[in-house]
Amino acid sequence: MTAPADQRHEVPAPAAPPPDTRVAWGERPSIWVRIPTWISLSGFILVLFALWYLLSSLELVSPFILPDPMDVVAELGNMANAIGTGGLLAEALGITVLESILAFAAAVVLGLGFGFLVAESDFGRIVLMPLLVAVNAAPKIVFAPIFIAALGFGISSKVALGAFIAFFPLLVDTAAGLASVDRDKATLFRSLRISRRKTFFKLQLPSALPFIFAGLKTASVLAVIGVVVGEFIGGGGGLGQQTKIAGDLLATDRVYAYGIVLAVFGYLFYAVVAYAERKIVFWQTPHGVQAGG
Amino acid sequence: MSSPSGVLATGSAGDTRPAPVVSIRGVSKRFATTGDDVVALTDVDLAVAPGEFVCLIGPSGCGKSTLLNLVGGLLPPTAGRVEIGGRPVTGPPSEVGMMFQKPVLLEWRTVRENVLLPVEARNGRKGAKAARGRADELLGRVGLGEFEERYPNELSGGMQQRAAICRMLIGDPDVLLLDEPFGALDELTRERLNLELAKIVSGTDKAALLVTHNIIEGVFLSDRVVVMSARPGRIVDVVDVPLPRPRCLEVVTTPEFTALVARVRELLELGHDDDGKDGDR
């Protein structure tokens, strides 16, 4: 147990690829682990598509419910064309995208602002929070006619509805995050006599970021939902309204096509936020390989 | 700034030490709860001289962590007086560096940025930048020379505590408050870090107060071992450890060491009539 004079322990050994013990123990990883995700995913989508094709070509389901997938593909092609040439659909998609981004931005302002108030002030915590919980518990779509009456059939009523639906989870996550500061870290900051304002920016806010990003991801999805619901009810020329019109005309293939486009947009929106999360909250995921023992 | 020496009851008789840097006189601490108040500490007297390493040992609930927090200015005493450098403690004093059971590193800062946090708190970002060389020098001394730019998640528990040692030392504190700093680590890492800590502290005039559950660790590191008991938290006795320094791990097997350990154990048993039911405060 003699300690060497030159103490340089725990320096990690040069990285050597570890032997695949799973194979040695006879537990081969499943096929889904071994093949690349993009292959398995697109393969699975193709299978679903084939199933769909089978169902509709055998006329097992009414085409008003499940249209011919080729019609949907054709409709998607039309859309791509229209978007390329800047037609009505391009405008519709542009409106919905713009509304969604604005609704998300407004939800961020509201969610972070009220979340801060609720976490940091007694008024917010005691008076504001129960009220906000009650409002949140209501099916918020009932407020849609009010937003339309107040803000008209244009973009702003959809932005308001989208923000209204999206901000609450962000508020809750922000408040929870700001209150989640590790006790030991708070003690450390106190022992270093770090001011309240500096503690907020150097400790509380970074501690809250993982929570805030969870809220931002939820909000990015809800903002699109809120905007499209607003368009269903209040028109305005967006893709939601186009979908509603197509549905009223029983043009199910177009409903599917628009739905797919909206899904892709919603996914991209979410992916952007998730990407920002990975970049900003880098310490949440294991950063590189664990060194030392 | 007056230092009324002579009234200092340090537990050990015949005081020839220099003026204490930490002085605790008649300190009691009660925590108000919904039921009866919890008496965490009652009538504690203790003085620690510069360069002295003192360990607080006792069962859970004996108030040793509370005592450390009182010295660190994180809690006000209910009665009595705590002084550091002759000045009464009314908040976290700048002369104090603390270490906790966990490393308590900020995951979003590099190791170097973590070490520089106390400097940044006192002198701002510019001051922290100016102290980078000192941070790197400290990190080199604990074997983290190549890890300044890494993030805490990339380090093992032992390495994280080494970084925490550097953060404690960066402000060159006169008093080190160590609350079971290596308690969460495995035995071997803990032994190694204890040795390093002893090496870093010895030969300086830094005073250290260490809270521990481990008798051997306490005797090995200390000049004096303060044995405490619970309910209410109080000092049972103080054991002087006259073993020469620097100590290497072999000292653990000497009869002198064994006798001291036995003595501490005996005192712990003495104050152990009421077992601690809840954790430390």
How would you explain this protein's 3D organization?
The complex is a heterodimer of chains A (293) and B (281). Chain A has one domain: MetI-like fold (Orthogonal Bundle), CATH 1.10.3720.10. Chain A is globular, with a radius of gyration of 26 Å. Chain A has twelve helices and no strands. By secondary structure, chain A is mostly helical. In chain A, helix 5 runs parallel beside helix 8 and helix 5 runs antiparallel to helix 10. Chain A starts with 20 loop residues before the first helix and ends in a 13-residue tail after the last helix. Helices cover 73% and strands 0% of the residues of chain A. Chain B has 281 residues and is of the alpha/beta class. Chain B has two domains: 203 residues, P-loop containing nucleotide triphosphate hydrolases (Rossmann fold); 70 residues. Chain B contains eight helices and ten strands. In chain B, the strands form two sheets. In chain B, strands 6-7-8-3-9-10 form a six-stranded mixed beta sheet, sandwiched between helices. A four-stranded antiparallel beta sheet of chain B has the order 2-1-4-5, covered by helices on one side. In chain B, a hairpin with a 6-residue loop joins strand 1 and strand 2. In chain B, helix 5 runs parallel beside helix 6 and helix 7 packs across helix 8. The two termini of chain B are 31 Å apart. The N terminus and C terminus of chain B are likely disordered.
